[in-house]
Each structure stands twice: as structure tokens, then as C-alpha cells.
Specification:
Blueprint: H1 3-31, H2 44-48, H3 50-56, H4 59-74, H5 79-82, H6 84-108, H7 120-136, H8 144-174
Length: 187
Amino acid sequence: VMYNTLAVWLLTVSVVLTSLGNVWNVFWCTRAKSDRHGRYGDGWMVSNFPFLHSLTRLLPLAAVFSLANIWFIVSPDGIFAQHPRLFCWTVGLLFTKLAIHLMIAHLCSVEFHPFRRTMVPFFFLAAHIAFTYINTRQFPMIDERLVLLEFLLLSSTTFAHLAINCISETARALKVNIFTVPKAKQS
């Protein structure tokens, strides 16, 4: 067994166990009748089914996790065996971007909106592959390496955009200069 494959399976098991523990904690927090942990939104689902509403916020994270594992397992070209670092970077950047949005929403006490434009190409490709497989009982002929590189470019570009915007907005809120040195301190 290759060490990188073992590491991925170890991390996958760790993520699943941590996620189940977090879902358990959210379940008990939403059952409590106090607003100690905050209530975000005022829709019908939030007031009638708060736990279910909480779970819907995790759908994109679960989709990225599931689709990456499916691609890892059933890839016709064995994409992970050929390009393990590219695969891990691509999926990691996507997952991290979604997690950062979740953390920012939590820190700013605003409702988390998980369905981001970044995810659209990934979901369209997954739907295309699924529909092709359902209709023809075989996977479509695509260059997986090229798709992986395109997804890496997309995920790294959107992650860089998120990082720069987070830094800029935080600096604006704190009224501090970033990426520049004030004229008074230049000498």
C-alpha cells in the first residue's frame, strides 16, 4: 500500500468521525429552546425544522467530499494514482474555500449561504458524467488530467480571490492600510 493512499484513507476516516461528532453537537444545540447559539434566518424551515435547516447548510461540503471520493474510487484513468498532489490540492482548496465562508459567517454572526458560484462547474461535470453513465452504462471519454488541471486553476483562482477580498474587507473594517505603506512612514 502506498503511503499517500494510506494517508488519504486515514484523513477520510478522521473527517467522517469529526463530521459525525459535529452533526451530533448541532442536533443537540438545535433541540435546546434557548437562543444561546444564535438563530439565523426567519423562514418556515428555520422555525419548524432547525436541525434540518442546519444540515442543508452542509450540502455543498458533503457534495465536494462525496464527489471527490467517488472520483478517487471509480476514476477510469486512476487520476489519484497519476496525480495525487494535484487531486489533493484541488479538492482541498474547494473544501477550504467553503469552510472559510462558513467560519466568516459564524464570526460575523450572519447566515451562511453555502451555494457558491465556484461549485457550479464541478456539479455540472458530475451531473454530465452521471447522466452519461445512466444512459450508456459507461463513463464518458474525458481527459481526466485536463479536467483536474482546469479544476485546480478554477479553485486556486477563486481561493486567491477570497483571500485577497477577506484581507481587504477586514482592513477596511479595521481602518488599517494593507499592501501599502502610508506616505508618512515612507523614508
